[in-house]
Every structure is written in structure tokens, then in C-alpha cells.
């Protein structure tokens, strides 16, 4: 018997489907493979799966064919073998799949974001000069809605099979209900990422983080010398103590830095520090001076060259033991030479080749503002109502998202609207 692998998500899209292995990659699927894998959520009986595929796709499929295809999917990492048989109502699942296909058939964008970042609270105990949070996002920084008002949003993120949820801020660990929020995310099985400055450190914080297996953790460090404190107004030794305490408790985590001319000489030492302390990943962010602070910045082409050198350094020195990624939108525009073989030709490849923030990302601020991109284009919810809170997004008609990457809108929640607020968060066509 087979089942979907833990951490595997299979989503219906207009070209067929999208398969996601959490933190391992995204993969285009044809429509029949999508139905095969989605059927495993309901049944692992080969005869039932064959009936579903035949009814939906008008193809001749035998139970033996299903077994063979699932064995192939096992080798790809999407499916695991288990011993618990499960069955379903074939007619009911078939109707559900027909409806799914009809819902996405006419789209030319993703059915939902790949990544949602939430900002439940904007309080921060540091003052980083290079902070990516634009000035307008600090409006209403005293707002921190209780967990009960975030729960409908978290439920929808899970229901729409959005693979990556990130909790940001401010400093996320200062949100008053961060631990109940993580408890709830564990309860619904939503994988979650947190980026922290590592200065909120205590025995209780470490023990709380340890008991949440569904989170990945990244700590921001700018340098291993006094420049970190000068740029962040933080205490480097406290941050390093946080990392050491977390590792001693068996918590997996990584380091994130922002690529700045002032600290570029620290990129390799930070990667070395991460490797020597058993951390799982090192990432570097692109600095866009959206707040017009007095800091130098690299061109996108320089970022591309720097990330290539960093990737080669980490790969040659540490192999697969230390992961590396460059974070930030529009990185493809930095490529000085475009080769035809690099130009994508498949639907998902084309979507991802543009600005990823516009194609696949959504941010939800502490006051209910939706941002289609971290460069501060926003939709504010509830501007004409007395209630402005994150849960109000569940009433939003989806067509507003078609404009969110190109204009600023103030919109009023629509009563009794279908709960499909994220559905248009893909690229406008």
C-alpha cells in the first residue's frame, strides 16, 4: 500500500498540477499524474484509483498500472509505502476532482501562492539599518491581533495547500501569542519558518522552540565583529549564545545575512561559522534601499556574481552538509547573459522565471494589509469598516489580487463571499 510522503504537497493547477517536496523543490506534473497522487489522499486501493483515473481522464488504467506508477512515484520521493489500507467513495472523489479541474482550467496563473509571509506583530527590539521592511509597513506597529483572529487565515493557508509559511516581523518571538500560534500550526500540520534576530533568548524560549517539530529557524547575523552591533543596534554575543543554546538543545537552524558592501568580507566567515556549529543552511538576502538609508548597495549583477562565488565556496568546502540559497526577488534580471537554453518553456517555469514575489508570494501585515511584493505595493483591508483585522481577508473577492502587483487599492470586505482570498495571488495575465 502507498501514501503521499510526509512533506509532499500535490496541488491542482491549470496545466495539470504542482508537486512540492518541502525544502527540496517544486515540480510540474501532468493532469493524470496529479489525479493519481491526489487520489492517495482519499484511498490507496489500486482498483479504486484506477476507476477514478478512468472516469476523469477517459483512459484505460488497470490496478496493476496504478501499482507500477506508484512504485515510480516512490522512487521520486513523493510516495512512501505503508501497510494501512484506505478506501473512499469513488463517485464522491470523482466529482470533487472534476470540480477541481473546472476551477483551474481557465486560469493563467497559480491557483494559490507558494509562499505566504505573515507579520502578526511589528514590535522589534533592534533597529537594523538595512531592514527590508518599508516605512509604511511600520504603520500601526502597536497592533497585534490575538491568535483567534489569525486562525481563519492559518486555516486557509493549510486548506489551499500553500507549502511555505513564514512568520516575520518586527521580531516574531515578541508577538504575545507566538507559542499558541505555533501550537496551532503544529495541530493543523502546517510547516512554518521563522526568522529571528536571536536576541530573545531564555531557557523558556529554547524549550518552546524545541517542542515544535514543524518549524524551521533562521537567525539573522550581519558579521562576526562589531559591525553587527553597529548595523543592528543589537548584541552579537547574545545572538551567538542563542544559536549555541538552540544547537545544544538539538534544534536545527540556519544563518541569514544581508549582502552589503560594508560586510561582504564576512560572507565566508559566516558560512564557516554555520558549518562549524552544525547549522543546516546559510542564506544571503539582497539589499534594496527602499527606505533610502545611508548604506551602499550592490547592483543586481554584482549580487549575481557574489552569490555564484558564495555557492561555489560552500559547495566545494562543505558539499551537501551546508545548504545555501540567495533570497530576494528579481534576481534573474541580474544575469548579464541570457542563454536560450535557460529560457523556460513550460507553464510553471515561465511563471517562476519572472518576479517571484509577484508570481508566487503574498505578505499579510499585522493590520490586515496584503502585499503582493515586499517592495511595498499594498492592498489594505477594511478601510471603510470598523473592523480591520487579518481574518477579514477570508471575505475578499479574489479578483483584487490581479491588481495587487501594479496598484494600491483600498477595498472593503464583501460579506458572505467565498473564502478564496488567496486564489488570485499568482501573476496577473
Write the layout of secondary structure elements.
Elements (H helix, E strand, L loop, with lengths): L1 E3 L3 E6 L2 E6 L3 E5 L1 H9 L6 H12 L5 H14 L2 E3 L8 H15 L10 E4 L28 H13 L4 E4 L10 H11 L3 E5 L6 H8 L4 E6 L5 H7 L3 H13 L4 E7 L7 H10 L4 E6 L13 H19 L4 E5 L19 H7 L2 H5 E4 L5 E2 L6 E4 L27 E3 L18
Parallel strand pairs: 6-7, 6-13, 7-8, 8-9, 9-10, 10-11, 11-12, 15-16
Antiparallel strand pairs: 1-5, 2-3, 3-4, 13-14, 14-15
Helix pairs in contact: 1-2, 2-3, 2-4, 5-6, 10-11
Helix content: 25-40%
CATH architecture assignment of the largest domain? Alpha-Beta Barrel
- Low-pLDDT regions: 330-338, 355-359, 373-429
Task: Please tell me the overall pLDDT.
Answer: 79
Distance between the ends: 42 Å
Strand order of the largest sheet: 12-11-10-9-8-7-6-13-14-15-16
Shape: globular
The CATH homologous superfamily of the largest domain corresponds to: Aldolase class I
Annotation field: number of helices: 13
- CA radius of gyration: 22 Å
Structural class: alpha/beta
Beta strand count: 16
Strand fraction equals: 15-25%
| CATH fold category name of the largest domain | TIM Barrel
Quick one: biggest sheet? Answer: 11 strands, mixed
Give the SSE order as H and E letters: EEEEHHHEHEHEHEHEHHEHEHEHHEEEE
Total domain modules? 2
Look at the structure and give the CATH class of the largest domain. Alpha Beta
